[in-house]
Amino acid sequence: MSRDMSDTQAIDQTAPAEDGLARARAMLAEKPDAMVETVARETGVSTRAVLELLPPEGRILIAPERFEALWQELAAWGAVMLLVNTPDIVLECEGSLPVGSFGHGYYNIHGDSPIGGHIKASNCAAIYVVDRQLPSRRVCSVQFFNGAGEVMFKVFVRRDSQRVLLSDQLARFEGLKAQFA
Q: What is this structure's pTM?
């Protein structure tokens, strides 16, 4: 009897998550260019869970142990768009990613760039290379997720003045997909 009760409890605990995922699927079907974070907030599921609902050919999972190697690759791209999206702010910063080093529990980045600071890389639980073909444009990013399934930050391939993806960064992005797949 206790086994039946455990099964019931497990079902009860997963039901709200399944309901949220179903609503997230419906939202993405209705509006394929919806911001993943917005869908997550509105449905009560993690951002990573919503990202996993996108077509699999549009995302590559990278092990978090590859954080430093990936960061060093991104640091060679020149000026990128770094984005941090919280419930209170969507912060965009254009600049090159300084090569960092580990110390005092952080991956420390400093250099001649507006992007600098300290990243708790040990909190990074997953990294995705995301290639979304939206109705109006293609969006290419590398997204770093924490253990709660929320985005720590994203690094985007930049666009030129005509809003076209920069060809040199796009080539490096394609190379990332092959290198880290």
A: 0.88
